[in-house]
Design brief:
The protein is an alpha/beta fold. The chain has a single domain, classed as Vaccinia Virus protein VP39 (Rossmann fold, 3-Layer(aba) Sandwich), CATH 3.40.50.150. Helix content is about 45%, strand content about 15%. The chain contains ten helices and seven strands. The chain has helices at about 1-10, 20-30, 45-55, 70-75, 115-125, 140-145, 150-155, 165-170, 175-190, 195-205, and strands at about 35, 60-65, 80-85, 100-105, 130-135, 210-215, 225-230. The protein has a seven-stranded mixed beta sheet, with helices on both faces. Strand 2, helix 4 and strand 3 (about 80-85) form a beta-alpha-beta unit. Helix 6 runs antiparallel to helix 9 (about 175-190). The longest helix is centred in the C-terminal third of the chain and has 16 residues, at about 175-190.
Amino acid sequence: MTGYLSCVNALMRPYRGAAEPLAEMLRASGSSEILDLCSGSGGPWPELGDELTRLGLDATVVCSDLYPDRAAAKRLEGQVGFRMHPAPVSALAVPAELAGTRTLFTALHHFEPQQVKDMLLDAQRAGRYFAAFEITHRSFKGLATTFAVPILALFLLPRVRPRRWLPLLFSYLPPIVPLAIGWDGMVSTFRSYRKEELEAMVAELGASDYEWRVAEFPSGTPLPMTCILGRPLPP
């Protein structure tokens, strides 16, 4: 399933629309360092890194996860500017020594509302730039799009590398993997936060030295990309 998600990111680049706001944040921060949280098998990196390079930014990206993916770590080792942090990192308790703009992709809906507020508050207190992007959408259009996921999985699973016979077998005889991917997508859609819900959360975090913004941007899918952007204000 994580291999399928990596394949979707590589072929469809659903988060290409995140490059512009992220580039703006990096320029404002004066640093090209990014700490990606809940990276899984690497998220949209390094495809998104190519988009940042196109915009004139050479980002240094440290991917992290509560359960680091060793296969993803090996894959990222050979690519300049990317690496997987070897130790477990919780998005709810980011070590102070891990610097850079904090990012999350397709991960916010895994957290309860209070956990999301705690995560945002931690970035605010630490004075870190923060950007969370979601392409799942709790709407009729979002649900309709999710129904197409198992069909898409049937076409993309043979592209997943490394290729293993057992996952391929259960992709078609019977199609357990596509159905599991579809179910995961459906649950993620129902758990996704609407724009107004995120706006209500950030409204509770008011601080004179930090600014939060919730926005929607076009994505590489039929659905809009919802994001929370946070940055410390100059003194």
